[in-house]
């Protein structure tokens, strides 16, 4: 799949933003006044900035309000509704902390649930797609949620929760890669099932339907420097989980926390780039693509 | 609403005969022509005369080679457009309600005035039946020529999809799959029409007819190519023996 920078930025930043809001909603760290303002400003910048980035890949963003209408069937619509609900509830909770020093638990708990639900809905946009076997699995939402929680905890500076979550996200990422690399073959879609011609003999593409590129090839049969995939995976794991965990354990303090958060976000960006670039869409089978 | 109807009164769709399609691409061109001039945003081209031309098409013809175990290879031309699935995954993922499946005839359509061009429906389709138009920023797909099939301003013979009307080899058929007596239902029953990628669970309406079995020569290799001299009698036998006695002829 085409790794669109706007979608990679959106899922990474908004995931971390909603993760941070989740921990703030539970009182980690328990801040009020100006400190609360700074934490909430950071969380909103990440969450809203991510959502704004996602609008960049739309063909007709001026109609985006319509995306709130189909929550009954569409995970993308659910994500839109949940994200706005989470941001509104958390705005009340945050304002009470900033201006009155009050922690409104009646808004905190629902806010925390809505933040996680938003991340879950984001992940389900991808996990629901049977056409992309690598994504179509419970491990996709699990990794999105653990990364949001780990990133949020790191940004919130709660190291005793952040460190184990960072290590857990690394472990889960390894499981995701291990299972994902085999899933296309396991699902059994081949050029033979795509064309129904397998019973006659061995199939190959004789001539493609068009000699130039098209939307399908650019968007879904994207192939890019996969020779570097293994190195990118190692770097992603290092930056996403190991380095920030080591930083948080060895050097507690504001600088280390900021550095750990930056490391983690860089690692998640690499992981998210691979999430798209390595994903194989079944439509490629019509064009002779032969995933492992 | 982007929920799917539980039942549609008709199931309009196409039967594509892989035995008779000659890969002439006439359906591709007539589709592009009709759907650029009529319903919805035109099917745009980018740099049509430049170095790297591309464009939006609703119908594309692939060609495959199949190599049977002990017979010559076969070339099979393979037209592909929207299959108007009963469990259309492209419809339920749509966040705005722009994608929908009609209750009256089962046609899957895009309301272009509500499409934000997010592209998720194209991701959800296993068949590559949807293309985002680069000029209009909205999703384009086969409408089954909704503006032809019900169009009383057209002569009755033209009230079928442009691809079907134009096909010179009779490889495309249009009809109602909900009616077991329709032309398309009978073709599917008689010729063993099949679904593409049934493992995706989309229950496509359009069906494909497999290529018929080819005639095969009885003996292999071809008798016309076999050695003539083996066990010959009469004049040819004498010639064979005589030539064999010359130097270098024993083999």
Any overview of this molecule?
The complex is a heterodimer of chains A (292) and B (251). With 292 residues, chain A is an all-alpha fold. Chain A has one domain (5-57, 67-194, 218-287): Formate dehydrogenase/DMSO reductase domain (Formate dehydrogenase/DMSO reductase fold). In chain A, 67% of the residues lie in helices and 2% in strands. Chain A is built from ten helices and one strand. In chain A, helix 4 (105-127) crosses helix 5. The longest helix of chain A is centred in the middle third of the chain and has 29 residues, at 159-187. The model of chain A has no long low-confidence stretch (mean pLDDT 93). Chain B has two domains: 12-209, Alpha-Beta Plaits; 220-251, no CATH class. Chain B contains seven helices and eleven strands. Chain B has helices at residues 26-37, 89-92, 120-124, 146-149, 162-166, 183-191, 234-245; strands at residues 12-17, 45-46, 54-55, 60-67, 74-80, 99-101, 108-110, 131-132, 139-140, 172-176, 207-209. In chain B, the strands form five sheets. Chain B has a three-stranded mixed β-sheet. The radius of gyration of chain B is 26 Å and the shape is elongated. Classes of the chains: A mainly alpha (292), B alpha+beta (251).
């Amino acid at each position: 799949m085409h790794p669109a920078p706007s979608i990679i930025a959106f899922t990474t930043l908004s995931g971390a933003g909603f993760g941070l809001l989740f921990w703030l909603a539970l009182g980690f760290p328990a801040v009020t006044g100006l400190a609360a303002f700074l934490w909430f400003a950071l969380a909103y910048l990440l969450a809203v900035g991510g959502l704004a980035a996602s609008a960049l890949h739309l063909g007709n963003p001026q109609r985006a309000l319509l995306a709130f209408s189909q929550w009954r069937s569409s995970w993308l619509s659910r994500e839109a509704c949940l994200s706005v609900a989470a941001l509104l509830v958390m705005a009340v909770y945050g304002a009470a902390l900033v201006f009155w020093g009050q922690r409104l638990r009646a808004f905190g708990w629902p806010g925390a649930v809505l933040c996680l639900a938003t991340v879950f809905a984001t992940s389900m946009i991808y996990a629901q797609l049977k056409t992309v076997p690598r994504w179509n699995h419970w491990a996709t939402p699990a990794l999105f949620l653990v990364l949001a929680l780990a990133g949020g905890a790191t940004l919130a500076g709660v190291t005793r929760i952040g460190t184990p979550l960072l290590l857990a996200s690394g472990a889960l990422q390894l499981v995701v890669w291990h299972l994902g690399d085999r899933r296309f073959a396991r699902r059994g879609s081949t050029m033979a099932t795509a064309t129904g011609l397998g019973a006659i003999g061995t199939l190959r593409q004789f001539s493609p339907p068009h000699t130039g590129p098209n939307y399908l090839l650019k968007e879904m049969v994207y192939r890019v420097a996969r020779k570097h995939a293994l190195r990118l995976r190692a770097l992603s794991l290092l930056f996403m989980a190991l380095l920030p965990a080591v930083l948080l354990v060895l050097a507690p303090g504001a600088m280390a926390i900021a550095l750990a958060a930056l490391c983690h976000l860089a690692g998640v960006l690499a992981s998210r780039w691979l999430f798209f670039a390595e994903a194989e869409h079944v439509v490629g089978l019509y064009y002779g693509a032969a995933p492992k | 609403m982007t929920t799917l109807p539980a039942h549609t009164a008709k199931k309009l769709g196409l039967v594509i005969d892989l035995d008779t399609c000659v890969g002439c691409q006439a359906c591709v061109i007539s589709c592009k022509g009709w759907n650029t001039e009529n319903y919805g945003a035109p099917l745009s081209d980018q740099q049509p005369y430049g170095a790297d031309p591309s464009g939006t098409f609703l119908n594309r013809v692939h060609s495959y080679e199949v190599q049977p175990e002990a017979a010559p290879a076969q070339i099979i031309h393979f037209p592909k457009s929207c299959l108007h699935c009963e469990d259309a995954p492209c419809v339920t993922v749509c966040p705005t309600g722009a994608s929908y499946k009609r209750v009256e005839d089962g046609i899957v359509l895009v309301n272009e005035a509500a499409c934000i061009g997010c592209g998720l429906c194209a991701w959800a389709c296993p068949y590559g039946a949807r293309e985002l138009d680069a000029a209009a920023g909205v999703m384009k797909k086969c409408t089954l020529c909704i503006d032809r099939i019900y169009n009383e301003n057209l002569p009755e013979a033209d009230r079928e999809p442009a691809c079907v009307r134009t096909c010179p080899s009779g490889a495309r058929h249009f009809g109602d799959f909900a009616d077991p007596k329709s032309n398309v239902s009978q073709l599917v029953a008689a010729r063993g029409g099949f679904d593409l990628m049934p493992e995706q669970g989309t229950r496509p309406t359009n069906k494909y007819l497999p290529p018929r079995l080819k005639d095969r020569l009885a003996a292999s290799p071809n008798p016309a190519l076999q050695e003539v001299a083996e066990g010959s009698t009469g004049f040819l036998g004498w010639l064979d023996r005589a030539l064999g006695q010359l130097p270098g002829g024993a083999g």
